[in-house]
Known about the structure:
This is ABC transporter ATP-binding protein. It holds the Pfam family ABC_tran. The chain has helices at residues 50-58, 94-104, 109-122, 138-152, 168-185, 196-199, 221-228; strands at 8-17, 24-34, 39-43, 65-69, 79-83, 156-160, 188-193, 204-209, 212-218. Helix 2 packs across helix 3 (109-122), helix 2 runs parallel beside helix 4 (138-152) and helix 3 (109-122) packs across helix 4 (138-152). The protein has one domain (37-62, 74-228): Rossmann fold. It has a 6-stranded mixed beta sheet with strand order 5-6-7-3-8-9, sandwiched between helices. It contains 7 helices and 9 strands; from the N terminus they run βββαββαααβαβαββα. The structure holds adenosine-5'-triphosphate. Residues 17-18, 24, 26, 44, 46-52, 161 line the site of adenosine-5'-triphosphate.
Amino acid sequence: MSPADALIDCQDAALTFGRGPNAVVAVHGAGLRIHAGDRLAIVGPSGSGKSSLLHLLAGLEQPTSGTVTWPGLSGLRDIGLVFQGDSLIPALDVVENTALTLVLDGVPEGRAREAALGALAVVGAADLADRLPEEISGGQAQRVAAARVLAQAPRVILADEPTGRLDHATGSRVLDALLTAANETGAALVVTTHDPAVAARLTERHTMRDGRLTSADSVDADTAHRLGEPS
Ligand SMILES: Nc1ncnc2c1ncn2[C@@H]1O[C@H](COP(=O)(O)OP(=O)(O)OP(=O)(O)O)[C@@H](O)[C@H]1O
C-alpha cells in the first residue's frame, strides 16, 4: 500500500516534554502508517510513551520533530477517541452521553439519539440507556465509550488503555465492543495496552519501550481471534 492510501502517516515523529536538563523524550522518531481495516496494538509498560504516541496520531500533540499527516482523512473529526477510564458527563444519561459527539457535530437531537440507541445495542449496553454514569460500572462505562465512538462512525478509532483498569473478563467485553464498533463502521482500530492478552486479539502488534517503537509482528485475523479467546 502506498503512503497515499494511509489514513494516518507518522514519519519519524518525536515528542519531547520540557526543555534542557528537565526534557523528557516521550517518543523517539516513530514511524507508523495506519490503513483502513488495520487492527493494531501498541504494547508497552507504563511510561513507555504509548499515550504520547496516540496523542501524536490524534493530532492532540504536535511532533517536536518529524511529521504526522492524515492523507486519507477529511479532518480530525474522522478520528474517534476512547481513553482509559473514559469520562462520561455526570449530568447526562448514557444515551445522551453516547449521542454527545453527534449533537456537538450538529446532528439533530432525534437522529443523534436514534444512532446512539443503535450503537448501545451493538455493544450490548441498550439496557443502560436511561442510567446516569454514577449508576454504571467502569466496564459498562467503557462499553458506552465504545458505543459513542461507534455512533460517531469515524474512519479511525484510537483507544488508549481502554481495558486498563478492568478485570480480564470485563476488559475482554470492552475489546469485543471496540472490535464490533470497528467492524460495523469499517474503521481502523489502534489500541494501546500493557496486556499481552489484549494485544493478542489484534492482528498487528508494535512494541513501545522507553519511547521507541521497536518491532511489529502480524498474524491473520483467525489466528488473532483464536489467541484472544479466553482459555
Ligand atoms: N505532559 C507531560 N509533561 C511532561 N512529561 C510527560 C507528559 N506526558 C507524558 N510525559 C512523560 O512521557 C513519558 C511517556 O508517557 P506516556 O504517558 O506517553 O506513557 P504510557 O506508556 O502511555 O504510560 P501509561 O500506560 O502509564 O499511561 C513518561 O516519562 C511521562 O512521564
